Amino acid sequence: MIGQTLGRYRIVQRLGEGGAGVVYLAEDPRLERNVALKILREDALRDEAARTRFRGEARVLARLLHPNVATLFDLDAADGRDFLVMEYVGGETLASLLAEGPLPERRARVIGIEIAQALAAAHEQGIVHRDLKPSNVLLTPRGHAKVLDFGLAHIIAPGDVSTTRSGSTGASLIGTIPYMAPEQIRADHVDARTDLYALGTLLFEMTAGSRPFPEAELVRLMYRIVNDAAPTLRSVKPGVSEELERLVARCLEKAPDRRYATAEAVIRALRGDDSENRARVDATARAAPPAATADAHAGGRIRALAVLPFENRSGDPEQEFFADGMTDALITDLAQIGALRVISRTSAMRFKGTRSSLPQIARELNVDAVVEGSALRAGNQVRISVQLVDAASDSSLWAKSYDRDLADVLSLQREVTRAIAEEIRIQLTPEEQSRLKPRGPVNPAAHVAYLQGRFLWNRWDTESLKQSITHFEQALAADPSYALAYAGLADSYSVLGNTNAMPPNVAYPLSIAAAERGLALDPNVAELHASLAYVQRFYVWDWPRVERGFLRALEINPGYGTGRRWYAQFLSAMGRHDEAIAEAERALELDPLSLIIHTAVGDVLFFARRYERAIYYYRRCVEMDPTFRPGHTDLSRALEFTGAIDEAIAEFLRGTGAQTSAPPASAALATLLVRAGRRAEAADMIARVEARATSQYVSPYGIASYYATAGDNARALDWLERAYAERDGALPLMKVHPRLDVLHGEPRFRELLAKMQLDN
Question: Would you name the residues annotated as active-site residues?
Fold first, then answer.
């Protein structure tokens, strides 16, 4: 096949062979990229019915997009051959790596987490791998794991089962015997937990250097997998931690219901949160009737929950802000409990008015329980009803109603938070107890104005932001000591400055002043610390002070997703990419449906030069909401650096809503045009941008990026120096932005880095 053409693909090299067929490296001339072609064995698709079934399942697999999964691009046929077109991943297989011996535990954990992340994404789509083994895990040149062949062991099978290619016994089996779970060998029902058994086998092999059942004779091997307890990991490899030994043992349980329930649970355990394993009940309790489930769940296994939008029981749409405000407040208070993962507001609010069932919502948000409630305000009287619901059983664990005066609403919020913590048996630290102690009375007029301001602020359009400032000022007029209102002011001005709706040198000082006045009143408001650090990052450029602010905010409120996003972006600008990625991913765990946090994860990956992974998150963002413009413009920037310049221009135009023959002039679009070789168009456009800069604020940093891309380093540096003089908020990215890489050898650029204190 080498040198031949199959369809439009030219075959370059044979990569390997598996049970499904032979894999080749091939060139795709249309898209100018390398792909992996898997030419299926002749008996894989025996008739048109099998092909129809395969096409249907392949469509499902093609929707499985994840950085730890090798993507399926297409299913095609040519010259009488059926073949799959897949993402080509360089590197080596886990099998070849393990041929050199066992791995250090830390490395095995990292690989295990990435495999589990791939499984979690697949299981979310209803896809079970069925054939997870070392040869189906590729390690990229950067060391990241990519899982291959999701579902192929099943969908190429005749009927519902097939014989493994690892050695035939005459039995009809799907998978590779040494990594099969007992239920696979018995041809029983398989589900996500079947893959977790295989993952346990991989973890055992990675750390011990051998499989738990190393027999070569297949009948004996199958008997042992079904009947014999797996050896403990430390009996084979004494230096392994007890924690990992417990984790692997649970994955290798014979009965699926005694394994971890989800890949996410394995990820948490591999990352060090082994509380679920330690809290497992003994064999007698496991055999208890289903009625005991809710009590057992409440007794220590709830470590992630979501507060759903409170229902407005007033019957007045104008009171919607009050119900939303109660939701926000409860999320904020619960997020201060370090042992609890609380889904942030953005993701929770996507379920406002939804008819989705609570178990369905819990699965989508990956939580153990949900809090739902209602709020009714009549004058200065408030009635709040709250219920804690177990996600798995959809049963109520606790419910209570509260009637209070509006002046006592802050204390009521803390009371509800402490009641939930007590119900799910989370031990609060002394500092958490102090932060969540009852608060004094609040001025009702100030609190209502503040809630109205936050309601408008969360709309994130310029007009609503300006209206929110009016309400925050009204709150401060009613109560000048109301620190939360200063946090609202700080956030409103910072967003207006960041979007250039106000000149940054006007908006940012106003934001800083508001945050500092709020902190003088109450130094324990996490939002104020984060807001101040956020603005200082753009305007003050005192990096140690900025970092202290973010760390203090996250110390007070570990579950503050927006604060973690901002901290991740700060770390990225500092060039601390691994830390930035970890913080951004943690922010996404806290706010999994947030569009802006998806782009933030993409951003930190982009500045770390991990463009393909960044593209995954940007694409996921625009799939969630095609109207979210930053998703398109950020995707455009990443595509630019993969060479897909035409697609990058198209995405940029989608993001600006300017899909016309004469789009508005912008430095970013001019940069893309010059990258595409359309230099005359680019020069004309940047001239119009510069002309506009004489009458209104235009980011000098953006113009500098254009000239750096165009190869005019001197003019690029002129505009960077102007950006410095005008305190352009984008300037802190100058060290890490790939568009400015060509300037790093310039003395003026190094001087500017030193002035910005970005030179180390």
Answer: 131
